[in-house]
Write a structure and sequence with these properties.
Length: 356
């Protein structure tokens, strides 16, 4: 990558500051502006990263600056307006993070607006973008272990639209398939009755477009995370580099992954590098806004299948008004859910406390 990209961060809470660290580290990006509604945090982040172009929100920023890249790192309820404002302002690319809004029609509007304007719409900080996950998916896609015979998901519960979207993103990548039907059972009853997904545990099955039927287990089992298998091997993702097992009985093998270019940033770094590469050269994103939408849609289908008595729901869902809200911290942000960040914490940074 040879181009230089001007970058604006919209939303400078803890995760937004992590994005700022990545973009300030890369040699071909320049952090030129930030938008942050909290005036103390806005000032602290500006001082920390040496940025003078400080704005309250996305519309204010785009009235003054049109960057090449806009990273939207806002609580869920504000993502749609900021992504659409970025696309309409004329950026080359915009990214959002998980969970991407709550209502399918709102996510559709973001995807459609970016597509209509030729704006690259990237996803964010998901393990699907991890270098090792992408590499293992490449081995599967190339048929190095033979044709897929099965897939399963384990421990899919607690926040199926938040952390749970990680499972769906990896499942779709490993199987190179879409979820076409969901049948689900949800517990406990009080969690199923809520508008959000906090504490919801889901069991069920996903039918995939490649013909596989994927069982889904809400609680951890002797297997973990997302597993796919062939006659020759089993590949398991469980919140880290995938493990590979071969033989009978299955024995873990040590197949090394390509070292990361920026190991300190893990899958945040690989996600951003993929984003920049696609902005410059085209191609397929490691994680896209479409991927985030697909994960949310599966979570919504699971919630309503369970709520409506385990009815099978075909995807894409016909009713785009259906929604599933994440827990308050993800939807409202730390300032409005009792987990605010102080000026001193924002000035120093709390993600990497060992740094001066």
């Amino acid at each position: 990558m040879n181009e230089q990209h001007a970058v604006a961060i919209i939303g400078c809470g803890r995760l937004g500051q992590h994005y700022a660290e990545v973009y300030q580290t890369l040699p071909n990006t320049e952090l030129v502006a930030i938008a942050e509604y909290n005036p103390e945090r806005r000032q602290a982040v500006g001082e920390r990263f040496g940025i003078r172009a400080l704005y309250r929100d996305a519309p204010d920023l785009f009235r003054h600056v049109v960057p090449d890249i806009a990273a939207v790192v806002l609580p869920g309820q504000y993502i749609k307006e900021a992504v659409i404002a970025a696309a309409q302002a004329g950026v080359k690319g915009v990214s959002a993070d998980k969970p991407i809004e709550a209502r399918l029609s709102d996510v559709d509007a973001m995807v459609d607006e970016c597509q209509a304007r030729g704006v690259v719409f990237a996803g964010g900080n998901l393990q699907r973008a991890m270098g090792a996950v992408q590499e293992a998916a490449g081995w599967l896609r190339a048929g190095e272990y033979g044709p897929l015979r099965g897939a399963s998901v384990h421990g899919w519960g607690g926040e199926i639209s938040g952390g749970g979207c990680q499972h769906i993103a990896v499942l779709r990548l490993f199987t190179q398939a879409e979820v076409t039907q969901v049948v689900a059972w949800g517990t406990p009853p009080e969690a199923l009755a809520r508008d959000d997904d906090e504490g919801l545990i889901v069991n069920g099955q996903f039918s995939l477009s490649n013909g596989l039927v994927c069982p889904v287990f809400g609680h951890p089992t002797p297997s973990r995370g997302v597993e796919v298998w062939t006659d020759d091997a089993l590949v398991r993702w469980d919140w880290g580099p995938p493990e590979i097992f071969q033989g009978r009985p299955r024995t873990k093998i040590n197949r090394p992954y390509t070292p990361l270019e920026y190991p300190r940033f893990s899958y945040m770094g690989t996600s951003v590098l993929s984003f920049l590469d696609v902005v410059e050269n085209g191609g397929e994103l490691a994680i896209s806004g479409h991927d985030l939408r697909q994960s949310l849609e599966v979570a919504i289908a699971a919630k309503y299948s369970a709520l409506w008595g385990n009815v099978p729901l075909d995807l894409p869902l016909a009713d785009r008004s259906l929604a599933l809200y994440p827990r308050a911290y993800r939807w409202l942000g730390g300032d409005h859910s009792g987990q605010s960040q102080t000026y001193a914490e924002a000035l120093k940074g709390t993600l990497f406390p060992d740094r001066p």
